[in-house]
Specification:
With 240 residues, this protein is α+β, with helices and mostly antiparallel strands. The protein is built from seven helices and eight strands; from the N terminus they run βαβββαβαααββαβα. Helix 2 (80-88) packs across helix 3 (103-113).
């Protein structure tokens, strides 16, 4: 199996219902004059998945924002998404962020970037600023306190124009969403909603409802490793 990194190549979109032109894909995932990363994974000489990310600075902190995470349906449920995200990480990253309509992307990001400490309590307590449930403990207060500034500082137009929505940002919100953004990106939610129903059978899904034109919002503060050690020495290599 082979993983390569590049800031130039743009592969075709795999296994998704969204179709983007090459120019629009580059504008949304690899914009000019922005630090970008591209990681792909091959399985038996087949392109099985890839991830794009862009980095920018907000209040002297480095934001690593996942702009696209795709795994071909023939290679899902093998841990490839988590492996791709782990390989994306850099020691100087301070904040990880993701907007996605697919719960699997959020689960993978929470596992790759979030706390390794599992909290299995079957309830959600917003007052303690933690999402408690099947996803690793994600400090929801961090998203609430930083989302607006991080999004506003983004050099990516579709991220910059997104509006935080849900009860996390507005206690009077009755939409059923907790942490989402209105991205004005209307796509077929059939597959994400099917996945969401499946996820809810096994855990207390903390981000709640997915509405038309909305995407889930997940932000995680980086857990910094010992900077004197290399990535491979301080963390296990991704397993595929």
């Amino acid at each position: 199996m082979n993983i390569t990194e590049s800031g130039e190549r743009i592969p075709q979109i795999l296994g998704g219902r969204v179709r983007l032109s090459k120019d629009r894909l580059r504008a949304q995932c690899l914009p000019d004059d922005v630090s970008c990363s591209y990681v792909r994974v091959n399985v038996d000489d087949c392109l099985a998945g890839h991830v794009f990310a862009c980095r920018w600075s907000h209040k002297a902190r480095t934001v690593c924002w996942v702009t696209q995470l795709v795994v071909h349906r023939d290679f899902r449920e093998r841990g490839l998404a988590v492996g791709l995200l782990n390989h994306l990480r850099q020691d100087d990253d301070d904040i990880y962020g993701l907007m996605s309509s697919h719960p699997a992307a959020c689960l993978a990001a929470a596992k790759a970037f979030g706390s390794k400490r599992q909290i299995a309590l079957p309830y959600r307590d917003l007052d303690t600023e933690f999402l408690i449930g099947g996803i690793s403990a994600v400090p929801i207060g961090f998203t609430r306190d930083n989302a607006e500034g991080v999004i506003e500082a983004s050099p990516i137009s579709y991220v910059k124009d997104a509006k935080p929505r849900g009860s996390l940002f507005d206690p009077e919100d009755t939409s059923g969403a907790i942490s989402s953004v209105y991205s004005n990106f209307f796509v077929d939610h059939t597959e994400p909603l099917e996945a969401l129903a499946w996820v809810r059978e096994g855990l207390d899904w903390p981000l709640e409802e997915l509405l038309d034109g909305w995407e889930f919002l997940l932000m995680v503060e980086a857990r910094h490793r010992n900077r004197s050690k290399s990535w491979s020495a301080s963390e296990p290599q991704p397993s595929f």
